[in-house]
Design goal:
- By secondary structure, the chain is mainly alpha-helical.
- Helices cover about 20% and strands about 0% of the residues.
- It is built from 1 helix and no strands.
- The protein is elongated.
- The protein starts with 15 loop residues before the first helix and ends in a 45-residue tail after the last helix.
Amino acid sequence: MPEPWGFRPIGAFVCPEGAACFAAVDRLQESGWLGEDDETVVLNTGAGIKYPETVPLDVPLLAKDGVIPAGSPRSR
């Protein structure tokens, strides 16, 4: 399955406003307003880190001393 918008996911943490722009490009392509060969630039000027509530993950935190607990994937 080809990746949307002709690029591969790189783990960018875009803000909701930026994500809306990517969704708009997708819809404009589906409607035919943008052609498949049209070049489109989406400027994402925000960062997803500003909206931590949008990512429902329980991310483990590193202790203040910076020691990675034994048995964790990164300690091997």
